[in-house]
């Protein structure tokens, strides 16, 4: 047992005698432990003395620094550290002699259009066929995460449906920022109205960042009505509602945002045209 340096050693134990009067082993051995409950009061025999040095025990090895467990690293999943998502900045200006390649650049794209414009189909195809990791984030899909208490705008636009739309947009923006921070491009789709800039584009700029590139997908009304007729569930609107939304979307003409009329285009052709539009938008970002 190790004793403090410079302190006297306890007197040797003599056969037939108890401990020296007034001397308590525990008092002189700060590191000693109380007897085990199953051992009763029987003293624990001391370790044998070192060979060649009667009565002198070998010194204990020096104690190393105490290992204090620290808190787990923040934002860590197992051993993979995830960088936090920050607002997306504007893309840097490319050299004047060439247009940037949108197929190999990490981008944040907002695809705008009325119901039936083909936003979801084009966004999925565009994301699936890029040469860099890309995620498709659908506002409607996130809205429908609410299973009990879902506020369907077709049953009447009210405070609950407005709140769920805003909550879904904020959730999509949070997801996009985290994907982008980890090198994964994002394309989001939403029916953003030009006559509601604070809630529409202004909200997306707050949620994702000024580097978000908005593109409007706006086919003719007859095409939108035909595509909407093929939809099912709460995503199918009445013809009157589709016509009203399409009329409001026409306000994007003259806004400065790029517009794709995909009335006569299939999905792959529209996705390729989207790359061309994004290339020009990266070279000269739209003011919005």
Question: Which structural traits does this protein have?
Answer:
288 residues; alpha/beta; Rossmann fold; 7 strands; five-stranded parallel β-sheet
Describe the protein in words.
With 288 residues, the protein is α/β, with parallel strands linked by helices. The protein has a domain at 108-282: Rossmann fold (3-Layer(aba) Sandwich). The protein contains 8 helices and 7 strands. Helix 2 (119-128) packs across helix 8, helix 4 crosses helix 5 (201-207) and helix 6 (221-229) runs antiparallel to helix 7 (239-249). The longest helix has 23 residues, at 159-181.
| Strand line-up of the largest beta sheet | 4-5-3-6-7
What series of H and E elements makes up the topology?
HEEEHEHHEHEHHEH
Number of strands: 7
- The low-pLDDT segments are 2-11, 18-33
Give the terminus-to-terminus CA distance: 78 Å
CATH hierarchy: architecture of the domain at 108-282: 3-Layer(aba) Sandwich
Helix percent band: 25-40%
Fourth CATH level, the homologous superfamily of the domain at 108-282: P-loop containing nucleotide triphosphate hydrolases
Largest sheet: 5 strands, parallel
SS-based structural class? alpha/beta
Number of helices: 8
CATH class identity of the domain at 108-282: Alpha Beta
* Strand-residue proportion: 5-15%
- Predict the CATH topology of the domain at 108-282: Rossmann fold
Average pLDDT score: 78
Radius of gyration, in Å, reads: 36 Å
The shape is: elongated
């Amino acid at each position: 047992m190790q004793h403090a340096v410079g302190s006297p050693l306890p007197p040797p134990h003599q056969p037939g005698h108890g401990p020296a009067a007034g001397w308590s082993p525990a008092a002189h051995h700060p590191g000693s432990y109380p007897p085990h409950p199953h051992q009763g009061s029987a003293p624990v025999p001391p370790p044998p003395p070192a060979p060649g040095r009667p009565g002198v025990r070998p010194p204990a090895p020096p104690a190393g620094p105490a290992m204090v467990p620290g808190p787990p690293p923040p934002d860590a999943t197992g051993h993979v550290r995830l960088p936090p998502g920050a607002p997306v900045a504007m893309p840097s200006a490319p050299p004047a002699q060439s247009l940037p390649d949108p197929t190999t650049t990490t981008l944040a794209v907002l695809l705008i259009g009325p119901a039936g414009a083909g936003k979801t189909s084009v966004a999925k195809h565009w994301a699936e066929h890029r040469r860099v990791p890309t995620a498709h984030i659908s506002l409607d899909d996130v809205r429908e995460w609410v299973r009990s208490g879902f506020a369907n705008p077709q049953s009447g636009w009210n405070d609950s449906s407005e709140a769920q739309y805003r909550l879904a947009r904020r959730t999509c923006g949070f997801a996009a920022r985290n994907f982008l921070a980890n090198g994964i491009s994002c394309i989001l789709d939403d029916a953003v109205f030009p006559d509601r800039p604070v809630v529409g584009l202004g909200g997306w700029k707050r949620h994702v960042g000024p580097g978000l590139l908005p593109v409007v997908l706006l086919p003719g009304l007859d095409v939108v009505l035909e595509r909407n007729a093929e939809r099912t569930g709460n995503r199918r609107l009445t013809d009157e509602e589709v016509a009203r939304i399409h009329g409001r979307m026409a306000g994007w003409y003259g806004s400065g945002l790029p517009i794709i009329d995909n009335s006569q285009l299939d999905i792959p052709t529209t996705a390729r045209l989207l790359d061309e539009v994004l290339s020009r938008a990266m070279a000269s970002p739209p003011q919005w």
